[in-house]
Amino acid sequence: MSVVDELVERVDDQDRVLGVVSRRRAVREGWPHRVAATVCRDERGRILVHRRSARLSRFPGLHEVVVGGAVGVGESYEQAAARELAEELGIHVLPRLLFTFLNRGGLSPHWLGVHEAVVPDAVVPDPDEVAWYGWLTGPELRSALLKWCFTPDSHEAFGRYLAHRTARS
After folding, report:
1. Neighbouring residues of 155: CB distance < 8 A, sequence distance ≥ 6
2. Which pTM was predicted?
3. How far is residue 33's CA from residue 66's CA, in Å, rounded to a whole number?
4. pLDDT of residue 3
5. How far is 120 from 143, CA to CA, in rounded Å?
6. Residues facing residue 69 across a β-bridge
7. Nearest Cα residue to 41 out of 167, 153, 162, 149
8. For residues 66 and 50, what is the distance between their CA atoms, to the nearest angstrom?
């Protein structure tokens, strides 16, 4: 399987746009580009976890704590995060950008914009993207992170998300 060939903005180590390239080329060349990810919480504070479809080109069948994808050309992190939530979960909310960081894990380096959104319990996942989803409490999620196979972004983004929430408290 190959990486979906979509256009992204190649950026530098300060997240400044250098030009437009295919995502496949950005990954192949190790060029930073932008990705938006959202931690989804429900009204009770549980966090949505999902397992990626086995048909996906990137990390098929692995679990994720975030919902997200590449930021398209001319999109903001927030716009991309909202689009991905609509595409993957069938929900229309505006996630709140918490922070960005240069993530050197995963397939290639990328700036990751981490968002948070309170979403309805009932989502309608796209079966081409999401094979399973569930709502986990904090202790359940900590246990799952040790036992299940998660994407590299999930571990890094969620660890930073927890540190961000702790710092705000």
Report:
1. 145
2. 0.93
3. 18
4. 42
5. 24
6. 36
7. 162
8. 8
